[in-house]
Amino acid sequence: MYSPTARLLTVLELLQSYKQMSGSQLAQRLEVDVRTIRRYIVMLQDMGIPIEADRGPEGAYQLRRGYKLPPLMFTEEEATAIALGLLGTSWLEIGLSVAACEGALAKVARVLPARGRERLNAVSAHLILSPHTRESRPSATLLINLGEAIQQRQRLMITYQSSSDQLSQRTVEPYAIAGWWGRWYLVAFCCMRQDYRLFRLDRMQQVQFLTETFARDEAFDCQAYTVAQLGTSTVGWQIEVAFQATLQAVQQKIPAAYGSLTTTPDGVVFQCQTDDLLYMARYLMALNLPFAIQQPPELRNAFLQLAEQMTQIATAQFA
User: Fold this and answer.
1) 270: which residues sit within 8 A by CB, 6+ positions away?
2) What CA–CA distance (Å, rounded) separates 4 from 10?
3) Where are the alpha helices (DSSP H) in the chain?
């Protein structure tokens, strides 16, 4: 049986989920009569909720067009999922305000029961996420604007800096945003090259959102293209390291899309590609698993450089 308060919240949630519902539809969902539904509608209107009613034998109800309500309640599992996402923003390398994350976490915590808040506090107090070291991060605003352009099928004019530091202006048709090995990419059709391309967001010097739109190729598989380009790219360095650990232990640390894992009598061989050896050295060290470098030899130099940086930090004296 529903309590009166639960019924009120249910009416509100139904009106948020459906464009319009009749009194009989609401009554059937809540197992009450139509007269009771009218009383609930009046109560919600008295609370300031802009519910509009259409006249008729049963009446039809809808929220005022354009009016949006924040989520009213979360289950403990839903709230925990949201909290973990907020806690992981630094690991995602998004330039999002710390104050915004803290404020959202506080609001989520307030809707949880005492036991849920205790569990959330335990997670946030003991969760360690090592952020990828990057000189620049995409702003949350840029990601949101790009997402809107993808949704609206809106062309972009970008000034792009290549790996050889050459600048070019390109009109592109955006399809998706991809995160890979600590970098963010725009999957797009390049009008200049007449082909699909991956554009690193940190190399996009300027982004102009054009008014012209494009017809999206629905047969194009963004995920398959991204994996094919970044997972098997021949650009950069071919990495091969041998872990002295079980396959299960390595799989828990390295996503399957990052490269291939092959079991051997002595452990697991990991193979992938990268264009940043120093970053790869940091990543492998953060896994906290014993391993030996098989190739390339230059990766050893990256570890020596990383060790030198750590030694300088450890031996530095304060003035």
Assistant:
1) 239, 240, 241, 242, 243, 250, 254, 259, 260, 261, 291
2) 10
3) 4-17, 23-30, 34-46, 76-87, 98-110, 114-126, 140-152, 222-231, 247-253, 277-286, 297-315
Torsions phi, psi of 278, nearest 5? -65, -40
Please measure the distance between the N-terminal and C-terminal CA atoms of the chain and give it in whole angstroms. 70
Q: Phi and psi (nearest 5°) for 79?
A: -65, -40
Q: How many residues comprise the chain?
A: 319
**Residue 164 — φ and ψ, nearest 5°?**
-95, 15
Lowest mean pLDDT among 26-40, 111-125, 159-173: 111-125
pTM, rounded to two decimals: 0.50
Give Dmax (Cα) for the chain.
83
Model confidence pLDDT, tens digit, residues 129-151: 544 444 456 676 787 788 889 98
For the residues 7-33, what does the mean pLDDT come to?
A: 83
DSSP 202: G
Nearest to 240 by CA among 282, 283, 271: 271
Structure confidence at residue 272 as a pLDDT band (50, 70, 90) = confident
Measure the CA–CA gap between 198 and 78, rounded to whole angstroms: 33
Q: Assign 71 to helix, strand or coil.
A: coil
CA separation for the pair 63, 16 (Å, rounded): 7
